[in-house]
C-alpha cells in the first residue's frame, strides 16, 4: 500500500542542548557505535535487496532519505531545517508515487472493465481476450488534467472521442513528469541536505 509522508515535527531545542554528556565520549567510540547502529538499521533493507530490478535502487534511496530527514530534523542544528524537512518530504512522496506507478494507474480508478477469454479456433488451444467496459468515467479523469489532455491529443492526433487512448497518454505523461520532478529536486536541492 502506498505511503504518504508528512513533515516531521521540528523540535524546539537542538541536539547541542540535549545529551551534553556525549561531548565527553571519545570520538572513536561514538563512530564505532554509530557504525553498529547503521548495520542494525540497514539489515532489513539489505536483506530484501535484489539486483534484477530498478525498483530496489529506489527502495534503498527511499530508506536513505527517511534516515537523513529524521537525523537532520531531530538534530535541528542549522537555520533552514524547515525547508529541508519540506523538500525531503516532497522527495519521499514523489519517490513513493514513482515506486507504485501512481500516475500510470490513476486512470484505472475511472474505468472498469471485464475480460472474457474465448477460444480462437476449434481446438481451443489458443484464446482471444475480449473486454467489456462496465463503467466509464474517463471524461472526469481527463477534465482533471484538461490542459495535458489537450496538448497530448494534438501531439498524437487523437480525436476527442478516443478517451481511453488519450487517458493512457495522459497517465504515461504524468508518471514521467513525476519522475522528472523528483530527479530535478534531487539535483538542485540535495547538496543542501547536510548538517
- Mean pLDDT equals 91
Please identify the structural class as seen in this structure: mainly alpha
The helical percent reads 55-70%
The tally of beta strands, per DSSP, is: 2
- Shape descriptor reads elongated
Q: Round the Cα radius of gyration to an integer and report it.
A: 24 Å
Strand content: 5-15%
Series of secondary-structure elements, N-terminal to C-terminal: HHHHEEHHH
Structure write-up:
With 195 residues, the protein is mainly alpha-helical. It folds into 2 domains: 100 residues, no CATH class; 71 residues, no CATH class. The protein is built from 7 helices and 2 strands. The protein has a two-stranded antiparallel ribbon. Helix 2 packs antiparallel against helix 3, helix 3 packs antiparallel against helix 7 and helix 6 packs across helix 7. The longest helix is centred in the last third of the chain and has 27 residues. The relative contact order is 0.12. The model has no long low-confidence stretch (mean pLDDT 91).
